[in-house]
UniProtKB/TrEMBL annotation:
Domain of life: Bacteria
Compartments (UniProt record): Endomembrane system
Cited InterPro entries: Alt_ATP_synth_F1_esu, ATP_synth_F1_dsu/esu, ATP_synth_F1_dsu/esu_N, ATPsynth_dsu/esu_N
Keyword Transferase on entry: no
Keyword set, alphabetical order: ATP synthesis, CF(1), Hydrogen ion transport, Ion transport, Membrane, Transport
Protein name (record): F0F1 ATP synthase subunit epsilon
One GO cellular component term: endomembrane system
One Pfam family it belongs to: ATP-synt_DE_N
Its biological purpose: Produces ATP from ADP in the presence of a proton gradient across the membrane.
Top-level taxonomy: Bacteria, Pseudomonadati, Pseudomonadota, Alphaproteobacteria, Rhodobacterales
Length: 135
């Protein structure tokens, strides 16, 4: 059995990579609670819930990420995390403001998209109603 001193971690979002690099420790939250991973942890798969993910890089630098739901897969020294949405904060204290701003922007975009969809649906209903009167 090979003893690993660090893990190769990749955090992927749809269409981009949020983080790709080495880590000596990782902490996250699954549906059944918080957990930590070290380089020689057993291979593992779990679903992540919206929460804060922390990782420590070689040298002791800690990085914090606010994440939406996702999946974590650990095999050997590789950890792959796929999440729908996520942001990195400078530290735990500033992460809340970063997450709030990010999700407010996403919420505004979703609101605009829902309004456009409602207009399209109303236009389609009007057009079908107009066809009813034609022979």
């Amino acid at each position: 059995m090979t003893a690993f001193t660090e893990m190769d971690v990749r955090i992927g979002l749809p269409g981009t990579v949020l983080f790709d690099g080495p880590a000596t420790r990782l902490g996250a939250v699954a549906e059944d609670g918080g957990f930590g991973l070290l380089p020689n942890h057993i291979d593992w798969v779990t679903a992540l819930v919206p929460s804060v993910l922390t990782l420590t890089q070689p040298g002791g630098t800690e990085r914090v990420f606010g994440m939406d739901e996702g999946v974590l897969v650990k095999t050997g020294d590789r950890v792959r995390i796929a999440v729908r949405r996520g942001v990195e904060g400078a530290d735990l204290r500033s992460l809340q403001a970063t997450v709030d701003a990010f999700f407010d922007a996403v919420e505004d975009e979703e609101r605009v998209a829902r309004a456009a969809l409602s207009r399209l649906e109303a236009d389609m209903v009007r057009r079908f109603a107009g066809l009813r009167g034609q022979p």
